[in-house]
Structure prediction request, 459 residues.
Amino acid sequence: MFNAILENLPYLLRGFLTNVQLAVFALGGGLFLGALVGLGRISERPWVYHPVTVYVNFLRNIPLILVIFWFYFVMPILVGRTLDPFVSAAVSFIVFEATYFGEIFRAGFQSISKDLVGAAYSTGLNYRQTAAYILVPIAFRRMLPSLITQSIITFQDTSLAYVIGLQEMVRRTTIVDSMEVRSIQLYSFVALLFFIICFVGSRISRHYEEKSRKAKVL
Amino acid sequence: MIEIKNVNKWFGDFQVLVDINEVVQRGQKVVICGPSGSGKSTLLRCINGLEPYHKGEIIVDGVSLSDPKTNLYKLREKIGMVFQRFELYPHMTVMRNIALAPMKVRKKSRKEAEKKAMELLERVGIPDKAGAYPANLSGGQQQRVAIARALAMEPACMMFDEPTSALDPEMIQEVLEVMIGLAKEGMTMLVVTHEMGFAREVADEIIFMDAGRIVERGRGEEFFKSPKSQRTKDFLAQILK
Prediction:
């Protein structure tokens, strides 16, 4: 009954592994760049604040799929050679997700009192040290539920990379389907896999939300 | 140690500091009092370079804060600061709170920094709380940790911004005792407070501020006994009730 899935399972799962790998890069890079973007968004220096704000507002108002396309077609012109779809997709995701993570970090930074920052400065810590040891860790902990939610969205979005021919799971499913013509079971299987991962993720997010509400540590 | 010359500062149209002049000598203890919104906290923040001022000059240890060449980070190491709401780092243990700056700024080894932190915790009377998080401490304990954190950088001067006004009455004394201890050891101190008992006991000079100006200054008992301006009299009458 599930022949189409079982016979192509290794092929499909390797595609899924690509989604996972892409998500790891997107989240790692997106969170790091996002923390910097968040710092830029609260900066008092106009030459930092304005460019970062333009970047965030621009990317948050265009669909991700366009960003993926745009990078894939424009980067070769800038770099001078065709990019591997995975690299191109990873860069697109990092640049795109950093704007969303950046806004989450910004909200986290703004929840930190001016005097707490003053306390850090008054012990002689410089801006970089204050950001690294005080601002980012506190914002990260406070915003953890939102960051997890955004991470789940990012993971789901990795399937969009099929538009530039990346051999991820959805792409491979269309390939298998074109030969086997078992659309319902094939796509249901893909949906189920995504659902399981994302559902578990959202449960983890809920757990942390409850925990931080009870502990009131931050 | 600290020289304030004709400092003026505005928040938009509102002038928070008007022609402030003050000199704090090494070892001197100055208490600043006055109604809320009179610019006391802002003055402390300006001295530590946490807020800019618009006119005049502040000189700490011979270095002007408004000189663009001044490294504010370096200068702040000389002045410890304690805040009304403690402002401990909530995600770090008490030990980490105190040892962070010595490790990152002074590049001390963790062992060295933690040994020093432990000594300071003993000095403020809570060595058993080294591994606790700030959220699990009482207000008085948190404020004592905040004092230890500031002392860890071995500052030449300590500034306190209403250190006891967020505390329950029964915790005020434990914090004041630590501060009196510091004063007796000869620390230069600049304290914004309404604890007039403390002011009587340690202050070399008491300053009364209102609406961004220094209205009156006096030496210890004389300030309380014979205030010159009516504004100071009214304020003292209210606070000493």
In short: Chain A has ten helices and no strands. The CA atoms of residues 156 and 194 of chain A lie 7 Å apart. Chain A has a mean pLDDT of 91. The interface with chain B takes residues 113, 115-116, 118-126, 129, 133-134, 137-138, 141, 215-218 of chain A (CB under 8 Å).
